[in-house]
Specification:
The protein is 28% helix and 30% strand. It is an alpha+beta fold. Strand 13 and strand 14 (241-248) form a beta hairpin.
């Protein structure tokens, strides 16, 4: 944790120097939203898209923010940190209560917190566990309330897995910290956007870029049985890029490692953002 540059309510300091109130609603209620914004070779990947999603998450919870100030603070954090390859974690919290109370005071002031950290963007192969999606009905908000994800991902870790693929009554939703794609020889498939999944920025970039390259993509409703037919399955996120699934612990698959469509999509993404 040493020497990680952070910013709390507009003041820059090292991460281990920052002190927050236990009455921060982030601490008592997870009444907060966040973004993870990657940058490679000091170039931010999809900055506007991340800022737009943060604004949307804040809007959904009626947080009034000054998005321009936040954007500038994030840019300043990247420049000041001198990190070349990494990401910004940035959190907006409703504020600090006088006393813990579900119903917040209308005069409460937004609390902001972010840091810049180094990250190695490397190809990953994942073992995953299939599990029931335990989460609430607004997974489209990038909230820090992630208990469902945390419970499932740690069950997966105890089974020697790296991630989960979640489903609601057999309908695939997403990974614990990622979106899911799978492919046959002809087409790439991914669950359509809904309140049950996070509108991942990597998902959005990938769909746009592979369609442009002539690859067929279908967004829709898919069942866990569709995964049995898949020739490849991969998960996407800002820190993982495209990470190939090599094994599902509790379901049979017919996955081919380094299947042609996965390799093509991965190359398109790397050429566009990680060079
Ligand atoms: N779904 C969930 C639940 C996530 O936590 C993440 C990563 N934050 C994603 C999808 C992927 O989103 P992105 O590509 O914007 O990182």
């Amino acid at each position: 944790m040493k020497n990680i540059l952070a910013v709390y309510n507009g003041s820059f300091d090292f991460l281990d120097k920052i002190k927050i109130s236990p009455l921060s609603r982030a601490y008592t209620f997870s009444d907060s939203v966040y973004e993870v914004i990657p940058f490679y070779n000091s170039k931010i990947i999809a900055f506007d898209e991340h800022i737009a999603r943060l604004e949307k998450s804040c809007e959904a919870l009626s947080f009034s923010i000054k998005i321009l100030d936040i954007s500038n603070e994030i840019l300043e954090l990247i420049t000041k940190s001198k990190v070349q390859h990494g990401y910004i974690y940035y959190q907006v919290t409703r504020g600090i209560d006088n006393l813990r109370s579900h119903m917040f005071d209308k005069d409460i002031s937004i609390e902001t917190f972010g840091y810049a950290v180094e990250h190695i963007f490397k190809s990953q192969s994942l073992k995953v566990m299939l599990c029931e999606d335990l989460r609430w009905q607004r997974c489209d908000i990038k909230s820090t309330s992630l208990l469902g994800n945390i419970m499932s991902m740690n069950d997966a870790k105890n089974l020697g897995c790296d991630e989960v693929i979640m489903h609601k009554n057999k309908i695939i939703t997403e990974g614990g910290a990622s979106n899911i794609f799978f492919a046959t020889d002809e087409c790439v498939y991914t669950p359509h956007l809904s309140k049950n999944i996070l509108p991942g920025i990597t998902r959005e970039l990938l769909i746009k870029d592979i369609k442009k390259a002539g690859i067929k993509v279908e967004e829709g409703i898919f069942s866990i049985d569709d995964l049995i037919e898949a020739k490849s399955i991969w998960l996407t996120s800002s820190t993982k890029g495209l990470a190939q699934v090599v094994e599902i612990k509790n379901q049979e698959t017919n996955i081919q490692i380094d299947h042609e469509l996965f390799v093509k999509c991965d190359k398109i993404f790397k050429d566009n953002y990680l060079t």
